[in-house]
Automatic annotation (TrEMBL):
InterPro entries: ATPase_AAA-3, CbbQ/NirQ/NorQ/GpvN, ChlI/MoxR_AAA_lid, P-loop_NTPase. GO terms for molecular function: ATP binding; ATP hydrolysis activity. Residues 258-322 form the ChlI/MoxR AAA lid domain. Residues 52-185 form the ATPase AAA-3 domain. This is MoxR family ATPase. It comes from Alkalicaulis satelles. CDD domains: AAA (cd00009).
Length: 332
């Protein structure tokens, strides 16, 4: 057997074992989170891809509950920061304090902030000032922070799951494009169906309430992230992603709605995110390799926060979600 065949067999065996473990994780999450199967799948795909997620939904849709449940199931120690207008960068990153030792000498000591965890929940991230929002940029991209000129590494793996309320915009600061691009996906959290809401009412208003239990460990998460990167991607899927990126950029697209209605399109980081996300989705569904269906399914959450329509296009009723889904179907 050639080395390439051995490698393929090894990846297949690891993928089968991983799919079984991930099925256990999803079953544990289902004990606490009812009716958000697609949201759960996309959130887990973000974690498996080694990225960060932006959860967008109205109040009371279990965004906070979901993040905490994911932390429990994955074994990632989590911390929550409630973003407010008066929140300062030091409240997230940490700060240095001047201490005097027993010998009378003074020295600065670094006190780590809540960012020093494996899963940070940034609750209502758009309520903090741009200066405070920007404090997360280096942590999200580089995996370390710099305070007073000193580098402080974050634990690995490190993920940010931020929440945002799309309804009440008074007193908020829209996230800048540079920070939005750091989020691998924007995951919209919908209202539950009547059947799901009935199950939620019965499950959460009684004397006993089911809770998610730990299934994975941080080391397993790191191994799963390496497996996702090792999964094969066929030429058909790769070409579909490349075609989608090209069609979504107004300076290169052959699509009239894009050329005239898109102010800016996705950059290379969007293609990288989609390459990882389709692999993670395939693994979560027990498949060894992604398909063009994965590209179509994940194009919207990966691209919608990385594109902006012109004012004229919005006035004409064009929606970025509709445009992305159309482009993805054509590219695939």
């Amino acid at each position: 057997m050639s080395s390439s065949m051995k490698d393929s067999a090894d990846i297949a065996a690891r993928a089968d074992a991983a799919a079984a473990r991930l099925a256990e994780a999803r079953a544990s999450l289902a004990r606490s989170i009812i009716g958000l199967d697609e949201v759960v799948e996309r959130t887990l795909a973000v974690i498996l891809s080694g990225g960060h997620g932006l959860l967008v939904g109205a109040p009371g849709l279990a965004k906070t509950r979901l993040v905490h449940a994911v932390a429990v199931v994955t074994g990632l120690d989590d911390k929550r920061v409630q973003f407010t207008p008066d929140l300062m960068p030091a409240d997230i990153l940490g700060s240095e304090v001047l201490e005097e030792g027993k010998d009378g000498k003074r020295a600065f000591r670094f006190i780590p902030g809540p960012v020093f965890c494996r899963l940070l929940m940034a609750d209502e991230i758009n309520r903090a000032s741009p200066r405070t929002q920007a404090a997360l940029l280096q942590a999200m991209q580089e995996g370390f922070v710099t305070v007073a000129g000193q580098r402080h590494d974050l634990p690995r793996p490190f993920h940010v799951l931020a929440t945002q309320n799309p309804i009440e915009q008074e007193g908020t600061y829209p996230l800048p494009e540079a920070q939005l691009d750091r989020f691998l996906m924007q995951i919209d959290v919908p209202y539950p169906s009547r059947e799901d809401e009935r199950a939620i009412l019965l499950a959460t208003t009684g004397t006993d309430e089911d809770q998610a239990v730990a299934v994975l460990t941080p080391d397993e998460i790191a191994a799963l992230q390496q497996l996702v990167r090792a999964m094969p991607v066929g030429e058909t899927v790769l070409n579909a992603i490349l075609s989608l990126m090209e069609r979504a950029r107004p300076d290169r697209s052959s699509h009239a709605d894009v050329r005239e209605g898109v102010a800016w399109g996705p950059g290379p980081r969007a293609g990288q995110a989609l390459m990882l996300a389709v692999r993670a989705r395939a693994l979560l569904q027990g498949r060894l390799a992604p398909s063009t269906e994965d590209v179509i399914a994940l194009a919207e959450p990966v691209l919608k926060h990385r594109m902006a329509l012109t004012f004229a296009a919005r006035a004409d009723g064009l929606a970025v979600e509709t445009l992305i889904n159309r482009l993805a179907a054509e590219a695939a």
